[in-house]
Amino acid sequence: xxxxxxxxxxxxxxxxxxxxxxxxxxxxxxxxxxxxxxxxxxxxxxxxxxxxxxxxxxxxxxxxxxxxxxxxxxxxxxxxxxxxxxxxxxxxxxxxxxxxxxxxxxxxxxxxxxxxxxxxxxxxxxxxxxxxxxxxxxxxxxxxxxxxxxxxxxxxxxxxxxxxxxxxxxxxxxxxxxxxxxxxxxxxxxxx
Amino acid sequence: xxxxxxxxxxxxxxxxxxxxxxxxxxxxxxxxxxxxxxxxxxxxxxxxxxxxxxxxxxxxxxxxxxxxxxxxxxxxxxxxxxxxxxxxxxxxxxxxxxxxxxxxxxxxxxxxxxxxxxxxxxxxxxxxxxxxxxxxxxxxxxxxxxxxxxxxxxxxxxxxxxxxxxxxxxxxxxxxxxxxxxxxxxxxxxxx
DNA sequence: TTGTGAAAAGCTAACGGTTAGCGTTATCGT
DNA sequence: ACGATAACGCTAACCGTTAGCTTTTCACAA
Lengths: 192, 192
Hints:
Two copies of one chain form a homodimer. The first copy, chain A, is mainly α and 192 residues long. Chain A folds into two domains: 7-58, Orthogonal Bundle (Arc Repressor Mutant, subunit A); 69-188, Tetracycline Repressor, domain 2, CATH 1.10.357. Helices cover 70% and strands 0% of the residues of chain A. Chain A is built from eleven helices and no strands. Chain A has helices at residues 7-30, 37-44, 48-54, 58-62, 72-78, 86-100, 108-115, 117-129, 131-141, 149-167, 171-188. In chain A, helix 1 (7-30) packs across helix 2 (37-44), helix 5 (72-78) runs antiparallel to helix 6 (86-100) and helix 9 crosses helix 10. Chain A is elongated, with a radius of gyration of 20 Å. Chain A starts with 6 loop residues before the first helix and ends with a helix. The mean pLDDT of chain A is 91. Chain A binds chain B through residues 121, 148-150, 152-154, 156-157, 160-161, 164-165, 167-168, 173-174, 177-178, 180-185, 187-190, and chain B through 121, 148-150, 152-154, 156-157, 160-161, 164-165, 167-168, 173-174, 177-178, 180-185, 187-190. The first copy, chain A, binds a DNA duplex (30 and 30 nucleotides) through helix 1 and helix 3.
């Protein structure tokens, strides 16, 4: 578990963890807007500048955990069983994701995110950052080496399912309803 | 032109115009980031608090002009010649909009917007604010009194065309390419 | 072991957008 | 003419964020 990391990098990672843990705990306890960066730094016993040395923004403190979630859709396309269509693989993955983050069984974490417009905006941009990667995977699925606008559009639509489904009364049903639209659009996309 | 407005409201409107005009001129001349709110207030000869009494944010100063642009897509659906399909009407409207704001013949105003991430974000949110209105119009087109997730998805897709087309090498071709996808999705949407 | 360079962390001070609190003036309805 | 209130102003601050510069801590080689 000591990972062959030098003392230096271990301490750096520890500082980062301490800041992130402290911040998340404070946000969950008192609310995102009610806790300032200066307070977080104070509680973690570091300087404000150190906080920003590890995290590019206040919002990034919150989302330090669920890294890797973003790549699930890309992998669902790229690493799928070749016998399945890409839209089918995406549909299943989206079902799983929505099941985890559905508002009824909402974890405190997602309630926190939902409580702040800043965090919702930041989350939306996190997804958009992966739109390009997903569009490349989709282009490859069509046999293209680079994405055309139609590929980017499909990626944009798939990434939107999560948001739209979360806001729907029945998220699981919404995933199917919307994926039916996307599957139809997929069939209409230029091939080769 | 005096509009039976009282002196009070005329003065208020005049102040608002003065602030907006001054700000936009300064932004265009020196760049959005290089001009601070305090400078704008100074140049317009008002207090900083007065600026924020008229505009909710610095970004809103820039977009005070092109109000009404947002409703074009909603009107394209609601007020169209009944002989045409909604996707066809939207396609034409989107072609017109992309023609006006294409980067080649970009007006200084749109160059200003493109120069600042803050302004691009704000613009994106302006569109999203109209997603609900467009989804209602689309639901009505299907004979529904309230939008279902599929309607919201279609609205989301149509609003995305503008952004995707602007980033494409050939914006006009991209509009057609993407609208073909949307038309296919439209056909797959639940009816009634 | 010691010296050296660099990464990590710290401090101070500020900037720019935004807001709260509170007073002042002008205008409106009666 | 008068009281209510909208519009505006001033001051002072808060908050996220960054620049500039110093100090601590480690890695590595002489």
